[in-house]
Amino acid sequence: MINFIFISVIINLTFCLFFKKISLRINIFDVPNDNRKIHKKKVAAIGGFLYLINLILFLSYLIIFDDFLDKYKINFLNGLKKYFSFFFISSLIFIVGVIDDKVNLSALKKLIIFISLIIFSLIDRNIIISFLNFEFLNFKILLNEMGIFFSIISIFYFMNALNMYDGINIQTPLYLFLLFVFLIFKEQNFVIFLIIPSIFFLFLNFKGKCFLGNSGTYFLGYLISIILIKLNQANSNLLTTEEILILISIPSIELFRLFFERIIKKKNPLSADTNHIHHFLMKDFNNLTTSLITNGLIFIPLVISQFTNHKIIIFILQFCLYFLLIYKLKKNKVKKNYL
Fold first, then answer.
1. Number of domains in the chain
2. Domain annotation covers residue 296
3. pLDDT over 90 percentage in the chain
4. Could you tell me if residue 76 is inside a domain?
5. Domain, as residue range, for 182
6. Residue 85 lies in a domain
7. Backbone torsion region of residue 78, taken as left when φ is above 0, otherwise alpha when ψ lies between -120 and 50, otherwise beta
8. Buried b vs exposed e over 132-143: b needs ≥16 C-beta within 10 Å?
9. Mean confidence (pLDDT) of the chain
């Protein structure tokens, strides 16, 4: 494990030290060509490459040291079908994201491609959500034939939720870092291959030098989805359904709210706007404070939930707090516009 950490740190440090040359070589930039963009100059959207490099390193490490799987409790990666899903499909999703960053694929094309790739990934049956086990119910809700459909929709939904959550500097890399820290708290030490690049990317993003890009958000959205599903389905007491709901809450609820509001206003639900929670908060706060507030809405309830068996109540309160905050922010926006 120590040698893996050392190699990973060296690779990530090299990426940061030669970041300017690497970004010019890859040549994928987010250009502020409309009023939605908060940044004023073009920024390299290659943060996803940092995570892909670490995924490749992780795969190489597993092949060389095959006892790593048993030692660090990731038996769900044993077998060629599981490797296919975890490494090959996630890499294809990354490539599609890169193409999207380059040529801006239509929403319909991305829908067809991503759904197709997710369906192919279900060759690994461990990705299928076969049951939901809520602590407060004390029994499993079996999904039976609906499990495959529910799994496809859940993975695709979170991929888009994370993509939409990635709107300002610090917010998403901080979310990723804290999410992986939580998984390490749950003794899933294998996510070290994701937490190390999160630290380096957080630094680059904080400095305004690098964005995740669509390649990074879709790629990580897929990886996080299958990790959470596999851990929950393998041991629902280790990672409960309620904990997952709290963990993915704000990005997921935000996506649902924005889609619903756009449909009500007879707009394209996939159109971009400035009605995200971070846009409202940015009226009064800087990037750092805004990111602390949005991520605080996720991880403070998550920490509290570790001290109670009534985690569903924490999630409901979190849900209500989000919409109360949105209501207050919108009300303040109306007042400011009026004045």
1. 1
2. no
3. 55
4. yes
5. 2-249
6. yes
7. beta
8. bbbbeeeeeeeb
9. 87
